[in-house]
Amino acid sequence: MQVAFRKQLDPEALKAWSQNLGHEDLATSLNGYGTVQDQRTSEIMAGLAATESEENGADANGDLPPEMLAWMEEQVRRRKG
After folding, report:
1. Which end of the chain is more exposed for a tag (fewer CB within 10 A), N or C?
2. Up-side HSE of residue 42: CA atoms within 13 Å toward CB?
3. pLDDT (tens digit, 9 = 90+) per residue, 59-73?
4. Helices 26-33 and 66-80: crossing angle, nearest 10°?
5. How far from 61 is each of 8, 9, 16, 29, CA to CA, in Å?
6. CB 36 within 8 A of CB 5
7. Environment class of residue 56 by beta-carbon count within 10 Å: exposed (0-12), middle (13-18) or buried (19+)?
8. Alpha helices for 1-81 (secondary structure H)
9. Burial profile 28-51: b = 16 or more Cβ within 10 angstroms, e = fewer
């Protein structure tokens, strides 16, 4: 998955990548292979916050598959817990 991240695949391509790994659910691929270092996570989240504020309230997650959104929400819950 690190290669997929470096290639900055869009949600559809990420889902195809996951299916190619033999995973029915994208979350399986992300949970199994998708570790992001803490420093990089901080950089990404700061960038997402800046992008969202620039979009004047647009739904930045509108194109993400539901299972990716669920996985992201779970990761946030885990970090808070």
Report:
1. C
2. 2
3. 555 567 777 777 888
4. 40
5. 15, 15, 18, 19
6. yes
7. exposed
8. 2-6, 11-20, 26-33, 38-54, 66-80
9. bbbeebbeeeeeeeeeeeeeeeee
How many other C-beta atoms can be found within 10 angstroms of the C-beta atom of residue 76? 11
- φ, ψ at 39 (rounded to 5°): -60, -45
pLDDT tens-digit readout, 22-32: 998 888 888 88
Alpha-carbon gap, residue 45 to 40, rounded angstroms: 9
**Distance of CA 53 to CAs 30, 47, 49, 60, Å?**
26, 10, 6, 10
Rounded-to-integer distance, Cα 56 and Cα 14, Å: 27
CB 11 within 8 A of CB 64: yes
Which residues, at least 6 apart from 51, have a Cβ–Cβ distance to it below 8 Å? 60
